[in-house]
TrEMBL record:
It comes from the Bacteria. The keyword Nuclease does not apply. This is protein adenylyltransferase. It comes from Pseudomonas farris. It catalyses: L-tyrosyl-[protein] + ATP = O-(5'-adenylyl)-L-tyrosyl-[protein] + diphosphate; L-threonyl-[protein] + ATP = 3-O-(5'-adenylyl)-L-threonyl-[protein] + diphosphate. The keyword ATP-binding applies. Pfam families: Fic. Its EC number is 2.7.7.108.
Length: 254
């Protein structure tokens, strides 16, 4: 099933991209080119922004992808508020369900709140990254946008992740598990061995360019259903019913 939330793939191409591309490989290459050409501008914007808030996240996406998507910088709640987006199928218990459109901002705000406690953030970086990924604010470009925001948050907390030592498949597996079961701290367990002292921002564009699999939760097997589907409603009632910690938002069912 082609990811076609706008319902116009045949005429406008994948997600109404500026080149009206339909071939997945061409889409991926052109989208990533837009990203690579804009990394330094996005990082410069982040470095100056105090504090980082939800509008910052939207702006970073706009900077990175406006050359390819006219809707860059707009979240799912603005574009497709009636759709649930997930990775996998509704019948698969291992599918990754992303946040309801009307709760995306709340999830991002909560992740930013967690990151503001610098000592806790360094001990639990996976909780912040997992919460950002669960929010899945955009129709595409989530992984790369979130990574840049996450790196800046880490920098302000005076640590970094040595991404060069991570494995694409292991990271994405831990991230998916984190989104499903945040209380189990799957991503903390994976990332903690790679926590290092702060690194210069000057190295970031090269570092980011070398990280593989940043779009791993965006491109493959992404599907969608209408929020009024009873099966979707039932999933949201039971999915991630345990909050990240005792101080988190009650539940992610609305």
């Amino acid at each position: 099933m082609t990811f076609d939330p706008f319902g116009d793939f045949e005429t406008a191409g994948y997600l109404q991209n500026s080149l009206q591309l339909k071939d997945p490989t061409e889409v991926k290459e052109s989208e990533h080119l837009s990203f690579e050409l804009s990394i330094e501008d996005a990082l410069a914007y982040l470095a100056k922004k105090k504090p980082i808030d939800y509008k910052t996240v939207l702006k970073v996406h706009e900077i990175l992808f406006s050359g390819f998507y006219h809707w860059a910088g707009k979240d799912r709640n603005e574009l497709v508020p009636h759709l649930a987006v997930f990775k996998g199928s509704l019948d698969d218990p291992h599918s990754t369900i992303f946040e309801r459109p009307d709760s995306i901002k709340m999830s991002i705000d909560y992740a930013l709140k967690l990151a503001a406690d610098k000592k806790r953030f360094r001990a639990h970086p996976g909780g912040v990254m997992g919460q950002l990924a669960f929010a899945h604010p955009f129709l595409d470009g989530n992984g790369r946008t979130i990574l840049l925001v996450f790196m800046e948050l880490c920098y302000r907390a005076e640590f970094a992740i040595d991404w060069s030592r991570t494995s694409k498949d292991d990271y994405l597996r831990a991230l998916s598990d984190e989104i499903r079961e945040p209380r189990e701290r799957h991503l903390d367990n994976y990332l903690n061995p790679f926590v290092v002292d702060i690194s210069s921002r000057d190295e970031w564009p090269e570092t980011i360019g070398g990280i593989r699999g940043l779009d791993g939760l965006d491109k493959e097997d992404i599907t969608y259903e209408n929020l009024d589907n009873p099966q979707v409603q039932q999933i949201y009632k039971t999915y991630r019913t345990q909050p990240l910690d005792a101080h988190g938002p009650p539940e992610s069912d609305g």
